[in-house]
Amino acid sequence: MTKNTRDNDVAFIQALAELLNQNDLTEIAVVREYGEDDSLEVRVVKQATIVQAPVAYAAPAPAAAPAAAPAAAPAAAAPATDDPASHPGAVASPMVGTVYLSPEPGSEAFVKVGSTVKEGQTLLIVEAMKTMNHIPAPKSGTVKRILVDDATPVEFGTILMIIE
C-alpha cells in the first residue's frame, strides 16, 4: 500500500466519522474495492454512553410494621450486585467484533462455567476486521458466568464473562 493510498484511506475514515456525527448515526460500515485482491473494509461505531437511573425495588413498608423495613433494604441492594459491569472479576471486550467461544467451529469451548483458568489463558476470541484476537484471562480464578453466546457481535466494553 502506498503512502498516498494510506493518506486517502485515513481521510476517507475521518469523513465517515464526520458523517456519523452530523447525521446522528451510531454505525457506518463500508467496503472500498481498489482492485482484484485489494480492498478496505471500514466499520465506524459511535460508543453510546448509557446512564442508568437508580431503581427502587422495595415497596413502602406499612407504618404498623417497622420490622419489615430492615428486610426491604437488602432487597433494594441486591440488583446492584447483579450488574456484571460492577463485578471485580468482569472481563470486558477490548474491541468491537464477533465473539467466538471455541478455537474453530465444532470444537470444544476454551472455557466453560466452572472452569479454573490461569492468568493469561485464552478465554475466547473476538474477531475484528478478519483478525482473530485471543482474549486472555486478566487473573487466575474460576469462570462463574459466561455472558455472551458464540458467534454474536459485541461492542467495546461489553462484559463477556465473570471470573472469581
Automatic annotation (TrEMBL):
Instruction: List each copy of the Lipoyl-binding domain by range.
Output: 88-164
Which keywords does the record carry?
A: Biotin, Fatty acid biosynthesis, Fatty acid metabolism, Lipid biosynthesis, Lipid metabolism
PANTHER family cross-referenced by the UniProt entry: OXALOACETATE DECARBOXYLASE ALPHA CHAIN
Q: Which gene encodes it?
A: accB
The record's GO CC annotations read: acetyl-CoA carboxylase complex
Q: Please give one Gene Ontology molecular function term for this protein.
A: acetyl-CoA carboxylase activity
Q: Which Pfam family, giving just one, matches this sequence?
A: Biotin_lipoyl
Q: Which GO terms describe its biological process?
A: fatty acid biosynthetic process
Protein name, as recorded: Biotin carboxyl carrier protein of acetyl-CoA carboxylase
**Where does this protein act, in terms of pathway?**
Lipid metabolism; fatty acid biosynthesis
Stated role: This protein is a component of the acetyl coenzyme A carboxylase complex; first, biotin carboxylase catalyzes the carboxylation of the carrier protein and then the transcarboxylase transfers the carboxyl group to form malonyl-CoA.
